[in-house]
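Justification of resources, computational component.

The compute hours requested in this renewal are based largely on the per-chain cost of generating structure records like the one below. Each record pairs the submitted sequence with a full structure-token output. That output is archived, and it is also reused by downstream analysis tasks.
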Amino acid sequence: MDLLANLALLLGFAWLVRGLLSAREVTWPRTLLAVVVGTLLGATLAGLLLVSPADLVGADPVDFPQGELLLVALPFQLVATMLAIVAFELVASRPAKTEVRLRNPLRALARRFRIVGRGVQVSRIASRRGLAPLLGLRRGGVDARSPEELARRAREALEDAGGMFVKLGQLLATRPDLLPPAAVAELSRLHAGARPLPREEVVTALTEELGATPESLFTDLSWTPLGSASIAQVHAARLPDGTEVVLKLRRPGLEEVVERDLAIVRWLARVAERRTGWGRAYGASALAAEFATALRGELDLRTEARDATEVAAAVAGDARIVVPRIVGELGTERLVVMERLRGRPLSDLTTPLTAEVATELADALCASQIDAMLAGDRFHADPHPGNVLHLDDGRIGLIDLGATGKLDAFERASMLQLLVALGLQEPTLLSEALVAVGAIAPDHDRDRLERELARFLATHLGSGLPSASALTELLRLLTQLGVRLPAQASTMFRALATLAGTLEPLVPGYPIVDRVAERGGAELKARATPESIGEFVQQEWAQVGPLLRRAPRHLDRIATQLQHGGLTTRVRLFGDRDDVRVVERLVNRVVLTALALGTGLLSVLMLGTPAGPVLAGSELRLLEVLGWLGLFASTVLLLRVLLAVLSAEVEDP
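The structure output for this chain reads:
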């Protein structure tokens, strides 16, 4: 009975402490677990105090002072329960590792085991390919003799890992700003081939998505897939009116596979960022989060359908460019039905095109994408040779629109300003352009940035505008310097670099950046050529003139106030709300800490004072009761401060 009474008291105490500490993440199951942990720890400590090791030899358990043990153990159990609640709150309040939350504890435990097993498998693959030191999983250096060999090992490791790691390699192949050309070329060889789904699974999935049997909506439906990748599988079919279409079906049960592999990618990124120089320099955790966002975006095929429709509208004025028409009424989150384009990818052309035809197609493709960028329309963000078709009728087809981009008005103006700075080869103007884009933090070392930009301009640029390869080198340099372009601006530059690589086999040395300047209109030309100084001054005067006309009145007013001693200044020390919150949080913690220490010290003095009135019907003194209550309050305050400090470190390491 005494034990049950102790447990009931501890449970009520735990409920009270959970509220006092604001432990929002400690649910009732965790509270019960905290009580069990506190009970065991408190009893263990009390037993060590009451019973010496020598007394345990040959002793009878009946002789143990159980009543005294329960009484002495109670304070230790209370403190241990409080510490357990704090620990559970810290663990539970960590950032969520995944957006998929499984409420069933057994399923959650099974999922944890799958993630751990997958992590062990990926770690072994990295070790077998000699990449463990590169990822921070093992100390030492990578024994690769050349960048090409290292890139080959990385590609083979990603292929061995399979699943979403192949997709990771494909996305990294579109980032020439992060990887050297050898790595980009090697990772571009990755193919996301996967085991084709059995016909029964395809029929079931299509019936669920369409709400009817596939045979009732399509004719000539081929059950042999045109392609089977890690995310989706593609089948050919015809609509009842004879239109050839392709059905892109997302693989069933993919969400859990994606979240499992993303958990491993985030773990590897954290390890690399903590243990390697390149991980810290490139922000491996941020890159992993960017990859996760892109991958989750590809899971919803409605996004691809919407983007394809917008890209089609952007290139509608050019009859030489074709984007598959989306059959919207048949699309769902897991299925997109689109027009089938007959042709061959530029990467698979067996018969070389004539110079005239190749130039015409290159001009059409380049113009369609640049016009979309400068007009604020949606453009293809990954126009590599495999995503660009040379159709049977001689036109160009754009497919696989899972990655697209769209610039707003501010981003378009900022990008033109950046191209102007490159054309003038002025590092200071280029730095100011990056500030206008919003890519440089206020505390960034601007002097070092300008020196590196000047070195870049002297090394890579000659007369005129830069080449597409120079843009890639600029992106890589900015990444190394810790400068982060906005997402859409970075997407535009990467799309231009990818487009340049696609056009190079068609027309060697194709001047893609000159085409940007040509189609940029009068603004870029007016700012980049010395003949336009008069027009430039006129444009600037339209903005600065009204300010200059008002300047004399303002100066006269300031001089008058200064003459009569009426000029005053006022400085707001805490004008920024973030600064106020930081100071408030710091002051609150200092005050709570001082209050806890003062209350604890006063409580100890009360407990040590033998004088004072005695409570009626007991031997307890009033000061002793007040001392224990104060000690409890002091402990709660200290633990609350500790919980706040540790929670802040978890949220913002």
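Residues 95-102 have pLDDT under 50 and may be disordered. The chain has 26 helices and ten strands.
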